[in-house]
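The passage that follows is intended for readers who have already worked through the single-chain material. We present the inputs for a multi-component assembly, then the predicted structure in tokenized form, and finally a short commentary. You are encouraged to pause after the input and sketch how you expect the pieces to fit together before reading on.
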Amino acid sequence: MTHTPDPVGEAALVEHGVDRHGWGPTEPDEEAVLRELYGEPDPDGIYRGEVDG
Amino acid sequence: MLAEARKWLGTSGRPNALTKAYAARNGAEFLRAPWCDIAVTEWSRRSGNAAAVLPHGDRAYTVWHAQDGERLGRWHAGTVANIKKHAKPGAIVFFDWGGTDEIPKIDHVGIIEKVLDDGRVQTIEGNTDDACKRRVRSASVIAGFWNPPYEEDDMPLTDADVKKIVAAVYDRLTHEVPPDVWAAREGILTPGQKIDPRTAWRQTWAYGKDGYHRLREILAKLDAQNAAIKALADALAARDAAINADELVERIRAEIASVTVRLVTDDPA
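Having made your guess, compare it with the prediction:
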């Protein structure tokens, strides 16, 4: 697929229209849910476990 | 798509390999840009799913990416009912931290890895706290989502899906022996017994093999009986010259052929 940089300036829209750093957790039980699905996170807090289905 | 996204869990900061790749194609201004949709774009390209995920080419601006799905007629507003009914692993899910379902207000994007039973989703997101992480999100922050038209094999079944299919096939092909069939009356099968294809094949083979051996025994007994008749005829011919042994044997065979006999053999079982 070929792509031409957007002439209206996608980068500017991204900078002003997209959350700069993205939000963190929004669910209070996120850690519990992810731990149940994937086990313990790595030292950086990343849940890398395999999908259990 | 999901397999590619999982490879990037833990990626953080910027520029990173994802923003560098996007910037190489679209301009250096993307090197340090918010990279949630850049991640989705790169994962789709690297997994061979660009045609499904990027119908209008690379996307870094989430609003445009949501509109791509809307133009395809695949957009679903972020309600619990829609999530439960339509959301699939691999769906592109868009967030508005303000809580609306309005595309122009979208702030962030990720992909759905798992739809939870309670109507929430578990996602993989780039640029969440400036890193790639798994998250859990609810309809309260989901503006909407769309399911890309992945090729059939692009979203492989989970182990749980495979187990469900195996169970369904087994159930479909497995039969319960009714009480009034011949095999049940003969005591070969037990009424209520579950017969699956493997069991049926084994039983067919077992009884076919049993029948073959019983036939061999019957033929052996007939050969022995013919030999005994011939021996008896030869003995009689030896005592009486008027007796033709061969004619006597033929007459006995003809007589036997004209009557119905019940041949009883021992049951090898």
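Commentary: Chain B has a mean pLDDT of 89. The CA atoms of residues 16 and 159 of chain B lie 33 Å apart. How closely did your sketch match?
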